[in-house]
Amino acid sequence: MQMADSFSGDQADIIHRFREQVNQWLDAYTLQLDSPPRLREAIRYCLLAPGKRLRPILALLACRACRGEIERAFPAACALEMIHTYSLVHDDLPAMDDDELRRGRPTCHIQYDEATAILVGDSLLTMAFEVVSNRSQTARECCRCVGILAHAAGYSELIGGQFDDLAAQNRLLTIDELASIHLRKTARLFAAASELGGVIAGADEQRIAQLTQFGRSLGYSFQIIDDLLDVQGNENRLGKRTQKDQTRGKSTFPALIGIEASHRQARHLIDEAIGHLEGLGDDADALRQWARQMIHRTQ
Ligand code: GRG
Hints:
Bound molecules: geranylgeranyl diphosphate
Order of helices and strands: HHHHEEHHHHHHHHHHH
Number of strands: 2
Number of helices: 15
Oligomer: single chain
Radius of gyration: 18 Å
Shape: globular
Strand content: under 5%
């Protein structure tokens, strides 16, 4: 993400370090997978591609905001990235969004083939649960993390949102219908990331609820900004095709309420997200600053 001037050096260092560490963990998790070699290669091609790692970073920052032990949050952070990458790989398939470019590279089914892309997605989704049920957590905490991830990735949220999104093409949605899709398809995984950070830190239930709300508002804002970037963004910088929503007759925030109002709504949601962190003190400053930067993102 491009950093604006207000993002202090210390905070930017934390984000940079978290991103590097997540990349190292993802590398380690997949380096010696006991799978057919070509499947392993395709999994690594997708997972280690230069994504922004926003969901893992969110989980780590949430854990930090509650003074949790960061090392214990890496498995859940990586599980989030695995679920997110699986959803991108499947979303890019011809039966869904039919894309050729992702993270600046040919999509999985173009680089390999459709069957491989389906199996890469299946592998990443199941690997996420393998990774999150590791021994660095208590059994109780582990079950809770599995439940949070399963719900966020499941039939009512990520998959349900995707289903409704596909069904909505070429139909003008109401703003409430579009909001419901954005909240399930995108914001729910952000909410889960933030919630997981709190759970792993051993935060009390009120803080966990605050973090969940924070992630939800931030994720919703992130998706509105994504809609804006599809209209106004730079394809090279984004590493994916732009102007696709309009070509496909998709309802988006800019299409329904206009560009200025979409910017306002995105900013309002970021303020709302930060408002949910009231009482979390200085420990949540990195999380607050990171959220504020979201509006400036160009990729
Ligand atoms: C296939 C079950 C299933 C779901 C697909 C994630 C998704 C749902 C579709 C991808 C297309 C899309 C616009 C999703 C909304 C969320 C989003 C903007 C994803 C891209 O996330 P970034 O920008 O990607 O964090 P990187 O590559 O940086 O990780």
